Amino acid sequence: MGRNIALGALGEDLAAQYLTDAGLTVVDRNWRCRYGELDLIAVDEGNPAGDTIVFVEVKTRSGLGYGSPAEAVTYTKQRRIRLLAQQWLTRSGRHWPHVRFDVVGVLVHRHDTSADPQITHLPAVF
Question: Model's pTM, two decimal places?
């Protein structure tokens, strides 16, 4: 289990850096409440429609044996993320004109540690 936690933490670090490099500002990480946890929360100030709060689910895998990382974000998981986002928005005390849900899939090569991880960003995926 410790290996999976470390892999997940690595994936979140890589995803946060990827999003930052893409111009988003990460404002919260691993936000928790009694209903669960949101991986990353970012602001996309470059959105032509105005400031957008982005809730990002990060899925990290070390192989494709169970499908791509993004495929692990099931409908049930999407519903949970929406519920958590409502909780975060309520507690933030700020009105956001736009809300978006992204998925970042990170594939870390288990047997080839010299290979760069593959990062797939799916904006507004649900």
Answer: 0.92
